[in-house]
Amino acid sequence: MSKQRKDQEIALQGSMRAVTQISAKGEPKIGVDEFMALCTRFGLSKKTLDRIRKAVNEEDWGEGPFLANYYSGLKESCVQAFQRTARELFGSPYAIGTSSGTGALHGAFVAVGAGPGTEVICPAIGFIATANAASLAGATPVFCDVDESMHMDPNKIEALITKRTVALAPTHAMGGVSDMDAIMRIARKHKLAVVEDCAQSCGARYKGRMCGTIGDVGIFSISAYKIVGAGEGGLILAKTKRLWERASQLVEAGGLWRPVRFAPPRYRGELFTGTNYRMSELEAAMDVVQLKKMPRTVKRFQKVKAAILKRLQRFTEITPQVLNDPDGEVGYTLRFYPDTIARGECILAALHDRKIQAGMRGKKADDDWHCYSFMHPMMVQYPIRRGDCPVADDLFDRVITISLNQWYTPADCKAIADRINEALATCCTIDPKAKAWR
Ligand SMILES: Cc1ncc(COP(=O)(O)O)c(C=O)c1O
To answer: Which one of 23, 114, 278, 353 is least enclosed by Cβ atoms within 10 Å?
Structure first.
């Protein structure tokens, strides 16, 4: 056993176990069989599983493997590799792997100074996690209406800014991007921080810049349902060392991120109450691989969406979603607004008849925590009512969303576009003069 490993064990097990000449030996904390049971869930070949079992059996693990960043025993832990990959891919100086996007948001908000008596401006459409995290930090979430891009409307931000506002938290929603030039202009004018919530748009760009690196802090969810992800995880990108330190203190209050773990504060404000949102080694082992695939995944989605859009006809009764950067968005959804919900229902039925996966909330749908006026955990704490953000209320009910798949072939794209055109033609009139879809 290496000296470093021995020191770590002593540190972990405490003084009793550090006493030598004791013959007791317990079962490993995590045994080979438990570890292999996890591995088999990932659909690996028998050959690979055999190799893993061999490696695991040969590893000197003492009490069993520690599936933890700081105790992996590796030269570069999986979490460190994940963070390095994130820094390289996004071109960001600082990255922190976390256990969830919500944990990442909590760290980001605290890093930029959200706390009791402050306010954070969140978009009316996104996900409740953004407002939840602002609230967890002690701040009051204030919802800003959206525009026809279904992202935070920059024209409505300034009216919401008070002397308590500390941050703007635009969400890049459903593969799309927020109007970052306008948002950054307002933030700089009022000396506000910007936390970009990129949970739904990992890999998107705004005017060539990676989303998550434009504001002060960017966060990502890398849970199973996101563009990048395996199980549950998150990522924080920070622009400065100070922001990285503050986010680290919140998400990793064990202090292991510090050069000297238990040392007194090196400067005023360095240390404060924290949590544990650390990413696990198992999660990181998967996520580092997933993250490396991200640029190719995004390219495939963009190619598919462009191939479909170029064949779509324009119709008088529907308006395509405004895209703040059509070339930079990830493009895993195609969205448009029918003029009425009744027409939307007609279009939806025609799409479904043609086996096109599409959805619209309409008037009768259930509550949904992606829109502020259904976020009951927020509504019971803050004076939020449906009607505060009328554009969001309207568009959230009326938008038709068609989900796209990165693996569609050119022939699939043509067939899908043809079917969408057919479906739209059954309920709408062709507008030959309108601009092409973008
Ligand atoms: C916009 C947005 N922010 C944050 C989150 C929270 O991420 P997590 O589920 O990893 O906590 C989500 C998750 O769906 C999300 O969509």
So the answer is: 23
Tell which atom from ligand 1 comes closest to the C-alpha of 104: 11
Rounded to the nearest angstrom, the distance between the alpha carbon of 102 and the centre of ligand 1 is: 6
| CA 159 to ligand 1 center in whole angstroms | 27
pLDDT digits (tens, 9 = 90+) for 254-287: 899 999 999 999 999 999 999 999 999 888 988 9
> pTM for the whole thing?
0.91
Give yes or no for residue 223 CB within 6 A of ligand 1.
yes
User: What are the start and end residues of each CATH 3.90.1150.10 domain in the chain?
Assistant: 294-427
The domain covering 294-427 belongs, at the CATH homologous superfamily level, to Aspartate Aminotransferase, domain 1 (3.90.1150.10)
CATH topology of domain 78-292: Aspartate Aminotransferase; domain 2 (3.40.640)
Q: Please write the tens of the pLDDT for every residue from 397-410.
A: 999 999 999 999 99
Return the structure tokens found at 103. Answer: 């944990």
Whole-angstrom CA distances from 330 to 8, 216, 391, 402 are 43, 22, 24, 14
Question: Residue 437 in contact with residue 314, Cβ under 8 Å?
Answer: yes
Identity of the amino acid at 68: A
Residue 212: helix, strand or coil by DSSP?
A: coil
Atom of ligand 1 nearest to the CA of 133: 4
